[in-house]
Specification:
By secondary structure, the protein is mainly α. The protein has 13 helices and six strands. The chain is 66% helix and 6% strand.
Length: 289
């Protein structure tokens, strides 16, 4: 028999905090999306995760065997995190769009892979494709507001989560570069009031992206130096899209574009692929008799 130690796996922390943000948005910020949209993200994500595990791992383990069920269970946190990412960023009133976005997000982890890694952040890819192709979905950064309590909470728990997987460098490199570029343009070049810059950089959408999306350890470069350079590139593209193309939700679009360059960074800066195994293996401990 085995007992499960939930918080040995950093993904469980992320799920807990993403749940808190979603509840806060729905209850206190009065997000307008119907609740069944959120249900569609989660149900589709879980179903697609099950289908993909059955379809892509049958050569390793028979479906519904104990080893297959263990692998399915250990992969479930990632599927839930992807579903939460859609809930927190993607807005739509169309059930078919929500279902398609969630299905694409999960499926992309299994079919778009290079050198043993899935190329795209699943939720980011689902969001971008839903916005570009459907015409009935959008990103609404303003839904988060800029309340001090919310921002302090996101910043605190974000640091906790990314520190657990030792990817704080990505978050800080992106946030720092993005802030410097925005400040240079808005405060120094355009001479706008400093409050405008502060509001732009401190929105909940930017902080949630910085600590819960771009920091995904499975889709960032392996080497620390490469991660920092890559995060700075994401920030630069996001700055250009925001300041000169006026694209709403620019960081998410910049992330998807920049992830096409991750294999090149991995070739230039050799490192080891991140694996959840050393976390998930420790979540199952023999139970004391």
């Amino acid at each position: 028999m085995y007992q499960i130690h939930l918080f040995k796996d950093p993904r469980h922390f992320q799920i807990l905090f993403q749940s808190s943000f979603l509840i806060y948005g729905v209850v206190f910020l009065h997000w307008s999306s119907p609740l069944w949209i959120y249900a569609a993200y989660f149900i589709t994500g879980i179903v697609m995760h099950t289908i993909c595990e059955a379809g892509f791992t049958t050569k390793q383990f028979p479906v519904f065997s104990s080893r297959w069920c263990t692998k399915w269970w250990m992969g479930m946190p990632s599927a839930l995190i992807s579903s939460y990412g859609l809930c927190l960023f993607l807005k739509t009133d169309m059930p078919e769009v929500a279902i398609a976005a969630s299905a694409i997000a999960i499926l992309s982890k299994y079919i778009i892979r290079i050198n043993g890694k899935h190329l795209f952040n699943p939720s980011a890819l689902g969001i971008v494709l839903a916005v570009l192709w459907s015409g009935k979905a959008w990103i609404n950064p303003g839904q988060w507001g800029s309340g001090a309590f919310l921002l302090a909470g996101i910043l605190t728990v974000g640091v906790i989560v990314v520190t657990k997987v030792q990817k704080l460098d990505v978050s800080l490199a992106f946030l720092g570069t993005y802030a410097i570029l925005l400040f240079s343009r808005q405060a120094l070049y355009l001479n706008w009031p400093i409050d405008f810059f502060t509001q732009t950089i401190s929105t909940g959408a930017v902080l949630v992206f910085s600590f819960f999306m771009i920091s995904d350890p499975k889709t960032t470069p392996n080497h620390p130096v490469a991660r920092i350079l890559w995060a700075m590139m994401v920030a630069s593209i996001a700055f250009y899209m925001t300041s000169f193309r006026y694209i709403v939700g620019a960081p998410v679009f910049a992330l998807v574009l920049s992830q096409m360059m991750v294999p090149l960074f991995d070739q230039l800066f050799r490192g080891t692929n991140f694996q959840w195994k050393h976390f998930t293996a420790s979540t199952l401990k023999p139970a004391m008799s």
